């Protein structure tokens, strides 16, 4: 069928919601998908339509801030092998590129011609197969995916300002980039003296090193000392072929086949669309601009993303399948097991640990965000171990190093590295708080600058898009993640000040020292809360659309995190009260401070009770960070601590009333949400009340 004869069906709001809207013909000097006018070099490389309204630059080059050039010659297309179609008579075939071309990553094999652009609604797809193809046919297509990890939609040399072409660090399918530290066998100060080629690479004893240039070094005056050199080792994957432990290839092939056969192409792409709609605004650990080309998801993501990351994205998006018109009718009756998808993701991660890429780290972060396997128990020690593995991976990949002044990698890769580091930092701090274990990250071991708006991708990559789904909160933008990173830095300082082994020994018996340390921390928490935009304020009513229907919003998990961070500070201040000496108890200043601490702790308890009472269905069914489950349990423990340390009968009655409200609110919340958010906190509270002899009949 000729691609120009595709019908344009009517679209429901969910079709726009999934990011699968059809691209209508664009008026201009070059007809849509015309063969008469050649595409620009970037669009030719990416195999997307080159849309030019009046004159260059085209829409893709303009959105990426790159020069729109027409220099490169068209690549020769390999003729389809008639025997490969098995008599099916398919009119489209997978286009193969000459992998020896200098600007192409050798592993990037899933290429599509202009006539095969994905249309998720008209029954055709970019793989050139009928959507009703048998699972075996789809499995055969899945075998084309390279076994080595391939990560992003743009594996080519990037066009930087000034026309300089540069390759991203994370674009090569056969080599992974490892950061060279100060004390290892490879001395970065020695490596700086070697001769590097035009790609800033040099090879020594079959090991390739890549130096990273930065403005701080380039702008240093003669005689001045520049920043320490930043060097990465580009280790060839073949050197790790015998690395142990490893997974047998037949096991990986079976798992890969299982994933391919779970979903049709349309279902797979819609799940990815759900991920970016419901999860990405609150946890932006991928490069959205590299996956959404011209505002649409390209089918080639199913080939370029490694199975570790792809499986984790599917599993994370599954809880939201009811919000997709197609998925709600195809897989909702017998949905795949998210636990099995996460298990397959971990299987591929264990293999990639010998040759890690950014995608390996992204998969680990999504594994840490998974829902609990048992809603009434804490996570097993495996999760704490996985946090440690994830932090170690981030260090190996050089993420703790500030990269905003690097001139040797593209802008999108710099901002992605910063977001990934803060994703690791956030996960480490909140997971360690919930588990009661030490953090894996020391404040002296990283220098990444705070996130800014320029480090975060816009909520919508299409500036002309005004189709906001009625069930998605339009306030779900990049501010959530930036504010969460700022709050987590305050939490980190609270933990360093009070909860390290030595800090606990110093502060648990010294009320005066505890108060002194708390002043600046309490002030920072207040400033953070005061800086919140109105849409993210703590006390928010249920968000409704124009029809009075609830919108989904994941921002309440940020509000809960603020309350629990405040609780964590008050828990530290309550500790030394039981250790006051007789002389201190008679000191009027200390007595006044003790009363102020108790009053502040009770106010914090009231705040969390009111917060849960105001949660609506639109909040409970949205995305919540995995550590939120432990946060609810921490709040239950805090309320019980206030009860058992009550200093008067009136105060005891006051706390008992709060506990009754808290218990009932969690029962309502735990029953309406299938994610088990409050189940652990409710179980802990009921157990403590029963042990304390204050269990009351259910209302």
From TrEMBL:
> What Pfam families does the database record attribute to this sequence?
Fungal_trans
The terms describing its cellular component in GO are: nucleus
Alphabetically, which GO biological process terms does the record hold? DNA-templated transcription; nitrogen catabolite activation of transcription from RNA polymerase II promoter
Q: Does the keyword Nucleus apply?
A: yes
Question: What SUPFAM superfamilies does the annotation carry?
Answer: Zn2/Cys6 DNA-binding domain
Point to the regions of Low complexity compositional bias.
81-92
State what protein this is by name. Answer: Zn(2)-C6 fungal-type domain-containing protein
């Amino acid at each position: 069928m000729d691609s120009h004869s595709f019908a344009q069906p009517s679209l429901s709001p969910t079709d726009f919601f999934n990011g699968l809207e059809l691209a209508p013909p664009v008026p201009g000097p070059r007809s849509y998908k015309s063969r008469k006018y050649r595409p620009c070099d970037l669009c030719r490389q990416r195999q997307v339509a080159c849309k030019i309204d009046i004159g260059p630059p085209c829409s893709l080059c303009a959105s990426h801030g790159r020069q729109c050039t027409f220099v490169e010659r068209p690549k020769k297309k390999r003729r389809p092998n008639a025997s490969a179609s098995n008599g099916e008579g398919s009119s489209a075939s997978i286009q193969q590129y000459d992998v020896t071309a200098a600007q192409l990553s050798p592993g990037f094999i899933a290429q599509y011609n202009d006539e095969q652009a994905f249309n998720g609604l008209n029954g055709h797809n970019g793989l050139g197969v009928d959507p009703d193809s048998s699972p075996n046919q789809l499995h055969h297509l899945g075998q084309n995916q390279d076994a080595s990890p391939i990560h992003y939609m743009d594996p080519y040399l990037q066009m930087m300002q000034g026309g300089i072409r540069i390759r991203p660090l994370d674009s090569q399918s056969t080599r992974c980039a490892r950061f060279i530290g100060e004390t290892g066998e490879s001395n970065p100060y020695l490596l700086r003296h070697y001769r590097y080629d035009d790609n800033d690479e040099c090879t020594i004893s079959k090991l390739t090193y890549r130096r990273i240039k930065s403005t701080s070094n380039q702008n240093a005056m003669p005689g001045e000392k520049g920043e320490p050199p930043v060097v990465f080792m580009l280790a060839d994957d073949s050197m790790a072929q015998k690395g142990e432990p490893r997974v047998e290839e037949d096991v990986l092939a079976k798992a890969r086949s299982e994933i391919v056969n779970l979903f049709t192409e349309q279902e797979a792409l819609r799940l990815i669309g759900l991920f970016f709609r419901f999860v990405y605004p609150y946890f932006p650990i991928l490069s959205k601009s590299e996956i959404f080309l011209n505002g649409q998801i390209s089918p080639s993501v199913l080939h370029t993303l490694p199975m570790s990351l792809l499986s984790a994205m599917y599993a994370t998006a599954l809880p939201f399948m009811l919000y997709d018109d197609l998925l709600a009718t195809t897989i909702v009756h017998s949905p795949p097991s998210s636990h099995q998808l996460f298990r397959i993701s971990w299987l591929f991660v264990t293999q990639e640990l010998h040759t890690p890429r950014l995608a390996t780290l992204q998969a680990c972060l999504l594994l840490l965000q998974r829902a609990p396997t048992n809603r009434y128990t804490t996570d097993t020690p495996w999760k704490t171990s996985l946090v440690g593995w994830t932090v170690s991976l981030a260090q190996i990949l050089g993420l703790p190093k500030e990269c905003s002044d690097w001139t040797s990698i593209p802008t999108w890769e710099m901002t992605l590295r910063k977001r990934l580091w803060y994703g690791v930092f956030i996960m480490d701090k909140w997971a360690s708080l919930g588990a009661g274990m030490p953090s894996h990250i020391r404040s002296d071991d990283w220098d990444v600058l705070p996130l800014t708006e320029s480090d975060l991708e816009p909520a919508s990559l299409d500036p002309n898009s005004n189709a906001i789904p009625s069930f998605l909160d339009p306030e779900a933008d990049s501010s959530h993640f930036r504010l969460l990173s700022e709050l987590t830095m305050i939490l980190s300082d609270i933990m360093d000040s009070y909860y390290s082994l030595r800090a606990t020994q110093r502060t648990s018996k010294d009320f005066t020292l505890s108060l002194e340390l708390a002043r600046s921390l309490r002030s920072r928490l207040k400033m953070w809360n005061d800086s919140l935009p109105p849409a993210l304020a703590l006390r928010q009513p249920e968000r409704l659309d124009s029809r009075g229907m609830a919108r989904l919003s994941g921002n309440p998990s940020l509000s809960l995190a603020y309350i629990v961070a405040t609780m964590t500070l008050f828990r530290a201040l309550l500790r030394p009260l039981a250790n006051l000496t007789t002389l201190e108890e008679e000191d009027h200043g200390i007595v006044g401070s003790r009363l102020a601490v108790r009053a502040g702790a009770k106010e914090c308890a009231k705040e969390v009770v009111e917060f849960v009472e105001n949660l609506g269905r639109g909040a409970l069914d949205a995305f919540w960070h995995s550590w939120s489950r432990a946060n609810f349990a921490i709040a239950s423990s805090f309320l019980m601590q206030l009860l058992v340390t009550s200093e008067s009968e009136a105060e005891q009655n006051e706390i008992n009333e709060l506990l009754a409200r808290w218990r009932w609110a969690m029962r309502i919340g735990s029953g309406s949400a299938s994610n088990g958010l409050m189940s652990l906190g409710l179980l802990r509270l009921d157990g403590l009340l029963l042990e304390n002899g204050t269990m009351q009949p259910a209302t």
